[in-house]
Amino acid sequence: MKDLRTQVAIVGAGPAGLLLGHLLRQHGVDNVIVERRSREYVEQRVRAGVIEFGIANFLEEVGVGQRLRREGLTHHGVELRFDHQTHRVALSDLTEGKTITVYGQQELVKDLIALRLGDGGEILFDVEVSELDGLSGPQAVVRGKGLEDEVRIECDYVAGCDGSFGVATRSVPASALRRHERTYPFSWLGILAQAAPTTEELIYARHERGFALYSMRSPSVSRLYLGVPPTDTLEMWSDDRIWEELNVRLTTEESPKVNEGPIMERSITAMRSVVIEPMRCGRLLLAGDASHIVPPTGAKGMNLALGDIRVLASALVAQLLEGDERLLDAYSATCLERVWRAEEFSNYMTQMLHPSDDDFENGVQRARLRQAVTTREAATVLARNYCDLNGL
Ligand SMILES: Cc1cc2nc3c(=O)[nH]c(=O)nc-3n(C[C@H](O)[C@H](O)[C@H](O)COP(=O)(O)OP(=O)(O)OC[C@H]3O[C@@H](n4cnc5c(N)ncnc54)[C@H](O)[C@@H]3O)c2cc1C
User: Fold this and answer.
1) In this structure, are 116 and 40 located in the same domain?
2) I need a surface site. Which of 18, 78, 103, 378 has the fewest CB within 10 A?
């Protein structure tokens, strides 16, 4: 049995848990990070890739932005394709110079792990947390099981950064949390391909056969998505079928065909919106996907998670170093206001870009798209939310 004592036990070494650990260490707050997967697994897990303007600046301010600035791709606009035509939303022009940075989530995770381990910190990999106790008492206790040892951590606070359906929300009586949820009638088939990007900016396409997204991770790696029925499985999608469908949905008469290459990774993800509130239950603080999920259409999931941590780290530092509990008391309300804005934006993008079986709905979607590319006001709202929702 490994018996530990710390100020903050952090469950989960995703972007949220790792950034929290880093910020607390910077302020001298002792913390332990527990992760059920191996280091290799979390460093290879391909997910998000768009980092907002304010979040990228924040990462740089707190010493995590060096490689992101060097290797990340800065974008000044995105393309919307519908009715076989391309329209550019000039993000920077509409937001007084703001940009987005394309940088893989797994790269940020690698940077955060290297920083922590490089200056003598530790992460308990391969330890699955099974139980949280004492959340309304004077001390909380986290229990888990590693490859060899049982682990028990006594702490002042637990940060539930363990993603959706995690042990953190399961440890609280159901009556203490409200869960708001929407499931969309489509999933995303995502691939990571060894192929140079065909274009310089992301392309969001609404085609009558379905949604498609063109994005990239580096000058030689592309990340592409297709909207597919929720019942589809990977076996139904051969490489040839994936490329053919991407080309149908993404190319117009004027645009070049999509560059193809070996597919290195593929997955199908259900589209959901979830908000669990409040984000604090006694000594448990929820952050990131543990407390909210957005469909990836607005590129908000990782940004929201990092935005929560910016608020949570300051609140924990104020409480643990100065005994000032006000920020911690306000944590849930402060975050939820931004979380619901992100839910609204992600829902707007999702509903607008995925064709429906309902003709009336299709008419509304196309009207919204036309409005987004022909009126400066609508384009500005889209650009501000896309570039910097967490910094607004
Ligand atoms: C296909 C896909 C594409 C996406 N694209 C984007 C995008 O473009 N932009 C964007 O902003 N977001 C995107 N997202 C969302 C983004 O990846 C998540 O919002 C982000 O990972 C949230 O970070 P997190 O740290 O809260 O949770 P996670 O990254 O899920 O981390 C949680 C961690 O907790 C660990 N854990 C879970 N249970 C336990 C336990 N019992 N004990 C110990 N450890 C545990 C998990 O192994 C994991 O490492 C995408 C997601 C997917 C799936």
Assistant:
1) yes
2) 378
The candidate with the shortest Cα–Cα distance to 201, out of 105, 112, 81, is: 81
Q: Which atom of ligand 1 is nearest to the CA of 34?
A: 43
Taking 3-state DSSP, the helix, strand and coil percentages for the chain, each rounded to the nearest 5, stand at: 40, 30, 30
Query: Would you state the structure tokens that stand for residue 66, as one six-digit string?
Result: 């060096």
Residues 6, 139 within the same domain: yes
Greatest pairwise CA separation for the chain in angstroms? 66
* Residue 84 per-residue DSSP state: T
- 3-state class (DSSP) for residue 204: strand
pTM: 0.96
Atom of ligand 1 nearest to the CA of 128: 42
Cβ pair 207, 355 in contact under 8 A? yes
- Is there a single domain that holds both residue 33 and residue 134? yes
Residue 230 CB coordination number (10 Å): 12
**φ, ψ at 219 (rounded to 5°):** -65, -10
Q: Check whether residue 113 and residue 27 sit in a common domain.
A: yes
Mutate to test the pocket of ligand 1, among 22, 46, 145, 162 (most ligand atoms within 8 A of CB): 162
Query: Do 203 and 133 sit in the same domain of this protein?
Result: no
Cα dihedral 374→338→186→209 (10° resolution): 10
**Residues annotated as catalytic (active site), given as ranges:** 75, 204, 296, 300, 386
Can you state the angle between helices 326-353 and 376-388, rounded to 10 degrees?
A: 130
Contact of 189 with 230, CB cutoff 8 Å: no
Full residue range of the structural domain in which residue 24 is found: 2-49+104-177+278-350
137 Cα–ligand 1 center, Å = 29
pLDDT score recorded for residue 256: 87
Q: What confidence score (pLDDT) does residue 347 get?
A: 98
Residue 342 included in any domain: yes
CATH number at residue 125: 3.50.50.60
**295 in Cβ contact with 198 (< 8 Å):** no
The stretches in the chain having pLDDT less than 70 are 392
